[in-house]
Amino acid sequence: MTSTLQPAVTARGPLDDARTQLREATTILGYDEGLYSMLATPRREVTVSIPLRRDNGDTELLIGHRVQHNFSRGPAKGGLRYSPDVNLDEVRALAMWMTWKCALLDVPYGGAKGGVRIDPRNYSSAELERVTRRYTSEISPLIGPERDIPAPDIGTDENTMAWLMDTYSVQQGHTVLGVATGKPVSLGGSLGRATATSRGVVHVALAALRSRGIDPVGATAAVQGFGKVGSYAARFLAEAGVRVVAVSDQYGAIGSHAGLDIPSVEEHVDTHGSVVGFPAGEEVDDLLTLDVDLLVPAAIEGVVHAGNAEQVRAQVIVEGANGPTTPEADTILQSRGRLVVPDILANAGGVIVSYFEWVQANQAYWWSADEVEARLADRMTTAWDRVTEHAARLDLPLRTAATCLAVERVAQAHLLRGLYP
Ligand code: NAD
User: Atom 19 (ligand 1): residue with closest C-alpha?
Assistant: First the structure.
């Protein structure tokens, strides 16, 4: 296991975007350079090599990271991503956004993120299990229910969390359910966790549409990404009466002017592995610039950027993904009067119910699905009200208002704790 503290990058990417957003917030809050630097820099990060024995007997070396951005308010918390695009700066950015998200929603965690550079589609389940167990073993000194609690993200799922929890538990000599969230319900998972991020996205999307005088019933929407977040977001939007006219995944986009039947799209994806080829839809060229009321980017970072933000026609953009809008695009969308509901608010449902799962696991006492949903709705609505009131009072975009509220909460924790030694 090797510790790395690499210097900041020069090419623009998610980490630059995250730091630009932080810089803006600390300037508004009147914080000095020292406090900015502390908040801009991860507290701890590790890079590990993961030798994998392939099913055919070959050995392959993979690289993984875990970044703990901050734990002033509690243990670090954040997803684990399996993607060929994973790199340390991306993980750093995602960890920082987790810190702000947890602070904004007032869950008692700092932020973390993990990633392994791998395209999971090219590996068998047995190989992915070996990758997960070796990665977990390498980062195990850093994680634990009181230290850092991983969860699923792009390319990982409840099985990944079951293997992670088992590997950690075997090392500890007893079952530690609280080391990961997003686990199977039969293994200490929470009811409602699998759909929580999407439910939260839809709670704020409906509120955002209404705030613009758009009745959600009959409003149109496009959803980018049809994975854990995007597919359920599309489904819950449709259940709320929104006409979902387009969805996409990494292979392409499909649409229907009349609105897609989302359960049928889900069935098509289960059988064919992609939305592409869905018989009751046409191919769509550029989902992001469709003439819709609501756009939900729910795939990857940086998809709305300076090069296409002028063409985005949706009135309301609700960030299901982390970091889908660059700061340049934010400025353009703002000047064009578009409403962007930022990731740290919009997709916080996942970490809220992860928090509920951790609480339930630690207490060994399980809540009903209705209880989880009611508490999730309450927290999302409270956060939406708080951010929109703050934005209106200070005449700020929602992202700036949300980041300021979150950063202030983290900075207060820092200042109250003081520096050691
Ligand atoms: P996932 O792996 O389940 O799904 C990702 C989806 O995005 C897939 O359908 C994939 O095909 C698609 N995709 C990838 N690249 C694309 C591209 N260029 N264009 C269109 N589609 C593309 O991942 P997920 O868990 O749904 O995560 C999606 C986003 O939501 C990520 O930014 C993640 O960090 C964020 N997020 C996830 C959670 C969670 O609970 N899973 C919580 C908060 C935020």
Answer: 250
H or E stretch at 123: none
DSSP one-letter code for 276: T
Q: What percent of the chain has pLDDT over 70?
A: 97
Residue 228 catalytic?
no
DSSP 175: -
CATH number for position 281: 3.40.50.720
pLDDT score, position 12 = 83
> Does residue 131 form part of some domain?
yes
**Residue corresponding to tokens 């409602």:** 192
Identify whether residues 169 and 225 lie together within a single domain.
no
- Using a 10 angstrom Cβ sphere, with 0-12 exposed, 13-18 middle and 19 or more buried, the burial of residue 420 is exposed
Q: Residue 167 belongs to what domain range?
A: 42-175
Mutate to test the pocket of ligand 1, among 228, 232, 274, 380 (most ligand atoms within 8 A of CB): 228
Q: What is the pTM of this model?
A: 0.95
Q: Is residue 7 part of a domain?
A: no
Ligand 1, atom 16, residue with closest C-alpha: 250
Which residue's CA is the closest to the ligand 1 atom numbered 41?
153
Angle at 250 between CA 244 and CA 255, to 5 degrees: 25
Are 164 and 221 in the same domain? no
Cis peptide before 421 (omega within 30 of 0): yes
Phi, psi of 69 (to 5 degrees): -75, -40
Q: Best mutation site among 97, 118, 250 for ligand 1, i.e. most ligand atoms within 8 A of its Cβ?
A: 250
Q: For residue 31, is it within any domain?
A: no
**Do 165 and 207 belong to one domain?**
no
Measured by CA distance, the residue closest to atom 30 of ligand 1 is 321
Residue 164: is its pLDDT beyond 50? yes
Ligand 1 contact via 132 beta carbon (within 6 Å) = no
Residue 4 clears pLDDT 90, i.e. is over it: no
Q: Is the CB of 298 under 6 A from ligand 1?
A: yes
Q: Are residues 148 and 268 in the same domain?
A: no
pLDDT beyond 90 at 166: yes
Residue in 77, 113, 183, 228 annotated catalytic = 113
One domain, residues 209 and 342:
yes
101 lies in a domain?
yes
Q: How far is the CA of 81 from the centre of ligand 1 (A)?
A: 10
How many independent structural domains does the chain possess? 2
Q: Indicate whether 126 and 160 sit together in one domain.
A: yes
Instruction: Read off the amino acid at residue 257.
Output: H
Closest CA to 245 of 296, 196, 204: 296
Task: Please determine, for residue 347, whether its predicted confidence score (pLDDT) is greater than 50.
Answer: yes
101 with 213, same domain: the answer is no
